[in-house]
């Protein structure tokens, strides 16, 4: 009796965990090391240049995340970011994504300095969207775990502005 109850409990736990996480339209994808934990189900660009190429060719905005593996602020944002189904679905459907643990040579990606974590949007015309910012005046592109709703709003803004500019 106990074995049967444990078996049923394990099956229910497995089923509930399968339905709780965002699953892309194409089915479960093999986790990539490029995600670095920011969303294993997403297809990540390997370099900034590749991200720009995909953005232009697919006519989707590029979202660039700058972070460090050992930064507690980056880790906290990564946890909330990767667990938010709305963010993961929007990124999968409407964005090209890239996360970097190093700075690029493009100075446009650090308009107000080099700090982590920061999230920058780039449109398909390869223009850095300096107008889409977070809530901090001294770190304009920084987001904290409590800023997820603002990040979602900014993602929608990047999509809408892109559509209206074309």
TrEMBL record:
SUPFAM superfamilies: Thioredoxin-like
Protein name (database record): Anterior gradient 2
Chief subcellular location: endoplasmic reticulum
Subcellular location: Endoplasmic reticulum; Secreted
Keywords: Endoplasmic reticulum, Secreted, Signal
UniProt record similarity statement: Belongs to the AGR family.
Keyword flag Signal: yes
CDD domains: AGR
GO cellular component: endoplasmic reticulum; extracellular region
InterPro entries with a match to the protein in the record: AGR/TXD, Thioredoxin-like_sf
Native source species: Seriola lalandi dorsalis
Lineage: Eukaryota, Metazoa, Chordata, Craniata, Vertebrata
Secretion signal span: 1-20
